[in-house]
From TrEMBL:
InterPro entries in the cross-refs: CheY-like_superfamily (IPR011006), EvgA-like (IPR051015), NreC/VraR/RcsB-like_REC (IPR058245), Sig_transdc_resp-reg_receiver (IPR001789), Tscrpt_reg_LuxR_C (IPR000792), WH-like_DNA-bd_sf (IPR036388)
Keywords, ordered alphabetically: Phosphoprotein
Organism taxonomic ancestry: Bacteria, Pseudomonadati, Pseudomonadota, Gammaproteobacteria, Vibrionales
Gene3D superfamilies reported for this sequence: 3.40.50.2300, Winged helix-like DNA-binding domain superfamily/Winged helix DNA-binding domain
Domain of life: Bacteria
One Pfam family cited in the UniProt record for this chain: GerE
Protein name per Swiss-Prot or TrEMBL: Transcriptional regulatory protein DegU
Name of the gene encoding the protein in the UniProt record: degU_2
Amino acid sequence: MYKFLVADDHPLFRDALIAVIRGRFEECDILQSEDIERTLDVAEKNPDLDLILLDLNMPGMAGLKGLLELRNQHPTIPVAIISAETNKQIILQTIAYGAVGFIAKSAPREKMREAFEQILDGHVYLPADIIRAEGESENSHRRKEDPQFSSEMLHTLTRRQLLVLKSMAQGAANKQIAYDLNISETTVKSHVSAILKKLGVHNRIQAVVGVTNIDFDRYLKR
């Protein structure tokens, strides 16, 4: 049975999020907190938490300092951000600071449930629309022909690996990729591992961010 901590200062949103969680994990245990101090206290008393869903704008958070404090004090408990934040750089920074995912508060219920499943399955989750969003970084000014990864690196990927990477860039979880490509989820995981190795990155978020502006059809035509 999974054990969640919903950390948000808005009672109505906590209730709504709990309903979404129970819609997928009926027998789960769900705890609540309304500020970073209470969140740290609950985490201290419940080291067996499977996932903390953390709002960035709770009292005491002080930007990303609350996330850092939570990760430093309880490094073994996965923390996913659930927020209305839309700034791409801040969102990516939460991942750099140790969050295992970012879920937009505006996401549909089913997308949230997919995110929970992906995170609990050991993956990092980041919505495709946020990855592709216009940001303030230099990446937002890249030309379509000027991706982060070189053409030589992308040409080392097999056609099937390119299809998997394309699906990853569209925000699809492993289960959905397996269904779309008519292969097993285990095979998808093998492809993902091979993709990360060939592109020289450590996780799927880095891979997806690096192919934000790539024209996949160009490489799939070969």
